[in-house]
Design a protein that fits this description.
Layout (H helix, E strand, L loop, with lengths): L4 H33 L5 E10 L2 E10 L5 E10 L2 E2 L8 H10 L6 E5 L7 E2 L4 E9 L4 H6 L1 H5 L2 E8 L5 E5 L1
Antiparallel strand pairs: 1-2, 2-7, 3-4, 3-6, 3-8, 5-7, 8-9
């Protein structure tokens, strides 16, 4: 049985419709992926050290360098891999600094902070985790002694994008 011209037109119409459906589905997938990427946060960790007339200053900070807000779900420190236990009325950063440095070094905690749970870090937002001043420390001592104090300290932030995609910063 030879196909009639009506059969050929029906098959061609079906092929065009299937191609159009496939192209629309592919474009929908591309648009969805683009939308998710266009609001993806990226938290980055930074440590800076500067020598001033007042001594050695070290600052630890977190910045959202992504293209969308970071919705913070959990923030914590670890020491030797164990989560730092905190007391509700105590400041976490002050507790950590006192635990790690104690009375062995002369230092001042000039500024500190943490993003709160369920907080949103805007694009470009920077939070100073700890800004420390070591007034009597030499640059050589800072380069050799300080790393030994912080080598077992971890900083962890679990956060999400606006599309609830999970991300983690672990330092």
């Amino acid at each position: 049985m030879d196909p009639s011209s009506k059969d050929i037109i029906d098959i061609a119409t079906l092929c065009v419709a299937m191609g159009a459906f496939g192209a629309a589905a592919w474009q929908g997938w591309i648009a969805r992926r683009h939308n998710r990427l266009s609001v993806r946060p990226a938290l980055t960790w930074r440590r800076s050290r500067s020598v001033t007339t007042g001594g050695i200053e070290i600052e630890y900070s977190v910045t959202n360098t992504g293209v969308g807000p970071a919705l913070v779900k959990d923030v914590y420190f670890t020491i030797h891999g164990d989560r730092l236990a905190t007391v509700e009325d105590q400041d976490v950063v002050e507790t950590l600094v006192q635990h790690v440095l104690g009375d062995s070094l002369n230092f001042h905690l000039k500024a500190h902070g943490l993003p709160g749970t369920d907080a949103a870090m805007a694009v470009g937002e920077r939070i100073v985790i700890a800004h420390l001043l070591f007034p009597t420390m030499s640059p050589e001592t800072a380069a050799t002694v300080l790393p030994r104090f912080v080598e077992h300290v971890g900083f962890h932030v679990h956060y999400e994008s606006l599309y609830a995609e999970k991300h983690k910063l672990t330092v």
